Amino acid sequence: MTKFADLNLNPKVLKAIEEAGYETPTPIQADAIPHALGGKDVLGIAQTGTGKTASFTLPMITKLARGRARARMPRSLVLCPTRELAAQVAENFDTYSKHVKLTKALLIGGVSFKEQDVLIDKGVDVLIATPGRLLDHFERGKLLLTGIEIMVVDEADRMLDMGFIPDIERIFSLTPFTRQTLFFSATMAPEIERITNTFLSAPARIEVARQATASETIEQGAVVFKPSRRDRESTEKRAVLRALIEAEGEACSNAIIFCNRKVDVDVVAKSLKKHGYDAAPIHGDLDQSQRTRTLDGFRAGTIRLLIASDVAARGLDIPAVSHVFNFDVPSHAEDYVHRIGRTGRAGRSGKAFTICTPRDEKYFESVEKLLQKEIPRLDNPVAKPAPAAKDETPAQDSETPQPKASDSAEPQREKSRSSGKSSRGRKSLDRGADKPSRRSDRGGQDSNVVGMGDHMPEFIALSFEERRAS
Ligand code: AMP
């Protein structure tokens, strides 16, 4: 097995690695470091959690230790899709270069241009930036990219999702042709392939196993249900989420709750707070100081539930998360692996629960296909509702917990029966134990209203709370 000492890294870097407590290089480090030190371009197909950050920072520090920074002309550039990831890469540099004299600047939104300009003016060895902010600096005429010897693109597939590819192409064209490029992506979409063909020169291609295969310590489960009505989907999903959290009790010491959309991140966070949970949102629209505060609170344990979008959570290194909840099934199956990989780290056990409604069905199938296994179905933890009246007007999407029928999520019973599509001869996504008989288990709550013919007056469908409020 390769040892760090075999990799020709600077002895001061080796010392820092030892102090960080790393014993052996991860596969991507063992493969990529010799190529990077040898001056070759590297195409790393790897996800967070594989040790990919050190696979480029360690050789960069070793190479940059020889030579000096020049004013306004950084010697290396690392591009990251999000501020958090950029900040984390910067932390990695600090850890591994603590015995080497290197200067660095972090160019991310939310930090004043002035502070960053001062650093650039003095000269930096390493510039770590998000693409937009880097181009802002460039356009202000304060920065030259013609001194770049090594350029890293981290999480290129995420850049693609975020629409950064034109910026990346522009940045490539502003750096010297002779630069060395280290390029990382979890997947190789055609657009990514095109960029690597254009800007990398005979790269060493290194692919490491998906984290999906390494997630044996994570217990997974999914609540598949059909909302009682389309306009109540979000409310009912939140009720399911709360019930799942409650069912876990103290075992759920902290959790990340993932939503596909930023707007849901905010709504879910607000709703949980309203229901008395220590919860806070994190997504790209929040300002940097707020995000840092939230993350610090989560790490320190003062915030129990972090509600996040995929982009914001990418690259966050939070060591001990007991639970992950997917409020939605992610639209990219790889994101499921990223999400659940936030728990069960370093041999600890963890639990990951997913809420799936009919609109998530095709994404759920792709997740199971990627994992090559079925995710166990769980009973819907929310009490079974009485059916909504036929002519009921749409209720408000109120956050107040109400004991009325339509506030609970209805387990899915008829799901997919009509669609008939199945990837592995499956009849329905909800083939778990959640198949109560149609009426017998509702404690008689939904017995027909008698004595009024077919018509049920609207007020009967309203709860006490609603009547009081009105
Ligand atoms: P990354 O894939 O770069 O996000 O790294 C994931 C985590 O693995 C980080 O917390 C690193 O500190 C840690 N790590 C990186 N390399 C090693 C190693 N060789 N041994 C143990 N942990 C490592």
TrEMBL record:
Residues 375-455 are annotated as: Disordered. The keyword Cytoplasm applies. InterPro entries: DEAD/DEAH_box_helicase_dom, DEAD/DEAH_RhlB, DEAD_box_RNA_helicase, Helicase_ATP-bd, Helicase_C-like, P-loop_NTPase, RNA-helicase_DEAD-box_CS, RNA_helicase_DEAD_Q_motif. It is an enzyme of class 3 (hydrolase). Keywords: ATP-binding, Cytoplasm, Helicase, Hydrolase, Nucleotide-binding. Residues 395-405 have a biased composition (Polar residues). A motif (Q motif) lies at residues 2-30. Residues 2-30 form the DEAD-box RNA helicase Q domain. Its EC number is 3.6.4.13. GO terms for cellular component: cytosol. Pfam families: DEAD (PF00270), Helicase_C (PF00271). Residues 427-444 have a biased composition (Basic and acidic residues). One of its GO terms (molecular function) is ATP binding. Residues 33-206 form the Helicase ATP-binding domain. It catalyses: ATP + H2O = ADP + phosphate + H(+). The keyword Nucleus does not apply. Transmembrane segments: none annotated. It comes from the Bacteria. GO terms for biological process: response to temperature stimulus; ribosome assembly. Residues 244-386 form the Helicase C-terminal domain. Belongs to the DEAD box helicase family. This is DEAD-box ATP-dependent RNA helicase RhpA. It comes from Pseudoponticoccus marisrubri. The lineage of its organism: Bacteria, Pseudomonadati, Pseudomonadota, Alphaproteobacteria, Rhodobacterales.
